[in-house]
Every structure is written in structure tokens, then in C-alpha cells.
Amino acid sequence: MAKVVRDKDQAVLKVYKERMAEQIKINAESVKRTTESRPTPTQEENDLAKLGVKVELEPDGTGETVITRTVVANVPHDPGYVTREARPLDSSRPVEPKK
Predict the structure, then answer these.
(1) Domain limits for position 28
(2) Residue 21 resides in a domain
């Protein structure tokens, strides 16, 4: 049986695949940075600093930190759906007690 895909579904699948490809790329970059880096300061450097020794740190190899997403409070990231609103009862209409 052939699978029928609607135009709307095609658009959703396209966006999904684009986002997944972007996520895979970001994950690969993160893994690369992690494998090429070394911890700094090391435990030995921490111990020497605790004793008052001036320690020159070498670059850890991770490169520059790049922040690509900005999150702002009270601003929805992707308002993809609408929720119902709770509205107060009309005060001019009397509320009947439950029996």
C-alpha cells in the first residue's frame, strides 16, 4: 500500500530534517572540541595554586566559546500552538448552586 503524504506533512518533514541536520552538526562540533581539549587547570595546577605558587596555564585547546542562541525571559521560543484562555465568569449572570 502506497503511503500518501500531504503537502503540510512534507513541509513539516522538511523542517524536521533541517533541524536534525543542524543538531547533528552541532553535536559533531561539540565532540570534536571535547576530544581535542584537555582539562585546565589540572589537579596538580590546582594543588600548586592552593599552596600559593603562581601557575601559568596553557590553552586547553577548546578554542573560543561561541553562543549561538539567545534566550529572553517571557518571550516564547516557538509559539507553534495556541492555548485556551481561562476567562472569569460574567458577574452579571448569577451562578446556580450545584444540586
Answers:
(1) 7-50
(2) yes
